[in-house]
Amino acid sequence: MEAIEEQHNFKSYLKKKFTGTGDSIFFAARFFKEVFRGRFQWQEFLNQCYMIGYKSVPLIGLTGFIMGLVLTLQSRPSLAEFGAESLLPGMVSNSLVIEIGPVITALICAGNIGSRIGAELGSMKVTEQIDAMEVSAINPYKYLVVTRVLATTFMIPVLVIYTDAIGFFGGYVAMNIHSDISFFHFFSAALAKVYFTDIIPALTKSVFFGFAIGIIGCYKGYRVTGGTESVGRAANSAVVAASLAVFVIDMIAVQITDLFQKHG
């Protein structure tokens, strides 16, 4: 009897997971349909760009500065041991632009922005504000989801560029703790090792990071069921799922970039 009950529970679990996966795929597919349909909500889009971009600048800037500072301080002794301290600016810039900057920025945004979107839409769902928009002949998906997903898709690459720039400055400050190097010389040496073929893949995967964070946060909030306690679960679930998506996208992007470099 217990074995039959366990088998039934396992089947119910699988059914729930497959149903949820299919629902999320249809939710994401609807975005591409709605984005080209009807009048675009420019005011809400710009408002979300402000909330996602400008409001994240202090946290992103502090993180970028610390990344550049710590990366330089930790790498300097190893390079100095071999008399290759002059290579430090180029190593720091490559690390920040290609991998550390995009991934860390996306993870911070997954926690900061993904949770905010999930909680915001979740609270609107449980208080029936989304249902009220539908009754008022307003397309809530177009107004709430499309604008937020496009805002995250657009602003995450901008924040990544900002993080890299602040990270360079953090590296410059760290270099001057143990040596004396001019601002112009440091940035010239750092930018000399950053190539166009490094920037494009980094910004491209940042676009996918932004889309994943936005669509996951919106899905978790839009599909909230139950009372107000489910809003917190939706926000937490959005952070976990978005962070996991960032790592998966980064893994795929690295493999694709490596493949193109081998055949380029």
Quick recap:
The protein is mainly α and 264 residues long. It has helices at 2-34, 42-52, 57-81, 88-126, 129-135, 140-178, 183-192, 196-222, 229-263. It is elongated and about 70 Å long.
Oligomer: single chain
Number of helices: 9
- How many beta-strand runs? 0
Radius of gyration: 22 Å
How many domain units?
Answer: 1
Q: What profile does the largest beta sheet have? A: none
Which properties best describe this structure?
elongated; 264 residues; mainly alpha; 9 helices
Describe the structure.
The chain contains 9 helices and no strands. By secondary structure, it is an all-alpha fold. It has one domain. Helix 3 (about 55-80) packs parallel to helix 6. It is elongated.
Mind sketching the topology for me?
Layout: H1 2-34, H2 42-52, H3 57-81, H4 88-126, H5 129-135, H6 140-178, H7 183-192, H8 196-222, H9 229-263
